[in-house]
Amino acid sequence: MTMAFEIFETRERALADNAAAAELTRANLRAHGARLVNLMGSPGAGKTSLLLRLIEALKPLRVGVMEADVDSDVDARTVARTGAKVIQLHTAGLCHMDADMTRRGLERLGLDGLDVVFLENIGNLVCPAEFEVGADLRLVVLSVPEGDDKPLKYPLMFRVADCLAVNKLDALPAFDFDLDALRARAAALRPEAPVFPLSAKTGEGVDALAGWLKARLGGEAT
Amino acid sequence: MTMAFEIFETRERALADNAAAAELTRANLRAHGARLVNLMGSPGAGKTSLLLRLIEALKPLRVGVMEADVDSDVDARTVARTGAKVIQLHTAGLCHMDADMTRRGLERLGLDGLDVVFLENIGNLVCPAEFEVGADLRLVVLSVPEGDDKPLKYPLMFRVADCLAVNKLDALPAFDFDLDALRARAAALRPEAPVFPLSAKTGEGVDALAGWLKARLGGEAT
Question: Which among A10, A127, A153 has CB closest to B6?
């Protein structure tokens, strides 16, 4: 009992500090004319693979990437091969990126010459949903093998999603995944968020998501 | 900076309280001659599906289940259909089960007439690894579609795993998943933990895991 109470108290204070840090990030982004996308999803949902596709598909927008990981630099090395500007952020065990870590990451990355920065958050459907980072847009990736029931079980993530990518569509025949059920469950939590079924592996459906992102990030003619 | 510091301070105190609660749970389990398994893995890894198989395969051991979820009772309803004793625990947004929530859950479930209790933790490869709950055994489920690189990115979870189930083996042909690479990466973190490739969908490989669990939980002749 005691412990749960302590956690919640800390959480409230932390969330207030977090909101202040997010505001600093928004001002920094405005000053540089850049946009920030908070990319979230389960471990193995295919966030990095989708990002590799989007770096190409969003051109001529110049994309920078912050790879947040508990440990390792596997994803940052993969992204670096595309030629995109990338830095690795280590959260030292923390299960989400908060606004202050994001703010410092953006300072380190540097916004000059970038139109859009993707923060690839820690693979986690719970904690990252609770911490705004000052992003213009929250892109959530769910993959077919995870199942169509995830909005029921992790509702906050689907409530904060501005846009939902349903990845690994190529694997649909191998799984009992009801795309219509998923759409209905996601829409119940956030009716206005579009759903993009796609495969980062084959590239199918990526252009539709990229087109929507371009329009939303206001970079059609950059 | 301030915020990160606060989080870490709280975490240390919380972890000390947590260890004390875990000790109470161990004493409670000993008094009833029951064992507790902490079942962890990503969202959609197939924890519940595997559990359904294990409830059958572990017979004559009498299995009870605590289904921890941020929200919903989908999994508890599924498990209840097997006839196993089950309760649903709602973590109200928390991303992991801690020892005190587990202790209170076990009190509510009641240990009489049970040999083994499975705590199905929140789907999350990060936070649950940090909180011991007083379990005798930590069973981690990784699924093929998540990728063989997960031990590199979420090392703590694989370091605390007493046993690793690699689920959705039936989907292996559809994914670039290197089972040998996974084994090597897992072994680098916890050499003594056995790895059981299996499919909760087809049942393949479940008996090997169940046999190992029976031996470890000392219930061969119960």
Answer: A10
Q: Are A160 and A138 in contact (CB under 8 A)?
A: yes
How is chain A split among helix, strand and coil, in percent rounded to 5? 45, 20, 35
Going through chain B in order, the beta strands assigned E by DSSP cover 35-41, 63-69, 85-90, 116-120, 137-143, 163-167, 195-197
| Whether pLDDT at A221 is above 90 | no
Å between A27 CA and nearest CA of chain B: 19
Q: Tell me which residue has tokens 């606004």.
A: A99
Residues of chain B contacting residue A152, judged by C-beta atoms under 8 Å apart: 71-72, 74
- Residue A156: list chain B partners with CB under 8 A: 70, 93
Task: Say if residues A74 and B149 touch (Cβ distance below 8 Å).
Answer: yes
Q: Hey, are the CB atoms on A153 and B69 less than 8 Å from each other?
A: yes
Question: Which residues in B lie closer than 8 A to residue A70 (C-beta atoms)?
Answer: 126, 153-156
Q: How confident is the model at residue B17 (pLDDT cuts 50, 70, 90)?
A: confident
Which of A3, A126, A170 has the CB atom closest to B17's CB atom?
A: A3
pLDDT of residue B49: 97
**What CA–CA distances, in Å, run from B83 to A99, B50, B62?**
46, 16, 11
Q: Dump pLDDT digits (tens) for A86-99.
A: 999 887 677 888 89
